[in-house]
Structure of cAMP-dependent protein kinase:
Amino acid sequence: MPSLGGFLKKKRTRESPGQKDLASPTSTSSQPTSPITPTPSRGFDNSIASVTTQSTAPETLSTSQPDAPLNQASPPTVGEQQPMTRGLSPQQQQALPVPADQQNLPSISNLINPPQNDGASNSKNEHSNPASGENTTYTGNDSSLTRAAPAVQAPQIRQTKGKYSLGDFEILRTLGTGSFGRVHLVQSKHNQRFYAVKVLKKQQVVKMKQVEHTNDERRMLQEVKHPFLVTLWGTFQDSKNLYLVMDFVEGGELFSLLRKSQRFPNPVAKFYAAEVTLALEYLHKNQIIYRDLKPENLLLDRHGHLKITDFGFAKKVPDITWTLCGTPDYLAPEVVSSKGYNKSVDWWSLGILIFEMLCGFTPFWDGGSPMKIYENILKGRVKYPPYIHPDAQDLLQRLITADLTKRLGNLHGGSEDVKNHQWFAEVTWERLAKKDIDAPYVPPVKAGVGDASQFDKYPEETDHYGQTGHDEYKNLFTDF
Ligand SMILES: Nc1ncnc2c1ncn2[C@@H]1O[C@H](COP(=O)(O)OP(=O)(O)OP(=O)(O)O)[C@@H](O)[C@H]1O
């Protein structure tokens, strides 16, 4: 049975000291300046040939990491932060001026076409397996990441249990908060590298009936391995909390970038949508529905490529499921009306995401009331602003369609139908999968030094971490 817990878990409005009044556009203290400004050095410059991301397990001893103090990064003070207006109405959004950078759009070919390879490096992501110490390297030949080989490899399951404890990490600042706890920036005491640790309060998880989802989150994250999905290195627990050790994705949430930019130029939205499409394709080929697509769960790595985080609703579903969960604005009608549903809900959500990136608001948004949003979803009427590119509108109409026999992604061609749509015509999918295409925006972060300047600030709290007393939920989280 669908539970209202699903409604309650994911509130689109999150409160933090850095965000003050998210629902009110009048909380804007200064006109946001769009960070998506083409720079000659990266992002729109084809001379940057490739991207190399290195990930290292927290317990791997390394001397290559500079021993830089965290405060070198000089995170902005709360007062300096750009306002975020998650609750802006379409009318309010439309009343906002078009950002300067959107009046002068970057060339689509610069953005989507492959850059010239300067021979400096091949696009390659190295992952050290924390359990075995083996290195798994994504190379240009990794067929699981290219369109040429639709048979995506079954993911290898990383052995993550029992590898870490709280004592392995120094807990630094909070990166984000959620319904059951928070995500901290941490530094490994072994290799001095930085990671993100998601801490979930067991009591809260149980109270909100999310035990199964939480165990699923761990299982799914452990299983997946893809350039656009966050890597889980391990999990552990104490008597009060569950801990998930992940890569620290330094560039912040796409949500923050979108709110600062108001809306993205067509090619920029296309770039992010294309990376998400590859991630969804990978998940679906591994029978995983993601179910929580939204800009808050899309992080930018230091080069500006996406990483999907928060697998709290991901589920292994070969066929059909019935659970009501997700974020109101992004729910497909078959979820709202408690019908059985399948992977195609993620393609619906991709449509909502593309719409939000192009317009700055979601199509069914309505004064912040979930019930009103659900009504609108079931009515299914979408008003497309005139500035949406006709190809984008055509794709959106095919994704945001209640009729499952017509929804793109759910048809015979599967994800290929989405990738072959005219809006994505310039995308070279093989190169995109290898991160061989420059991102439109490179976050201003100092790489590898624990620079969390792209994240909002939160009041800190580490109460009850590391407690060893009686654990009344001992039998519920045996995988952690
Ligand atoms: N690997 C990571 N690197 C950097 N920041 C992260 C990482 N994972 C999560 N965060 C930050 O923490 C925030 C909360 O994480 P997450 O969404 O996983 O928590 P949650 O408890 O499921 O939240 P919610 O209840 O809102 O869905 C994210 O929006 C992001 O800002």
Notes: Residues 328 and 370 are 6 Å apart (CA to CA). The pocket of adenosine-5'-triphosphate is lined by residues 9-10, 14, 175-176, 178-180, 183, 196, 198, 230, 246-249, 253, 296-297, 299, 309-310, 312, 455 (CB under 6 Å). The longest strand covers residues 169-177. The first helix runs from residue 4 to 9.
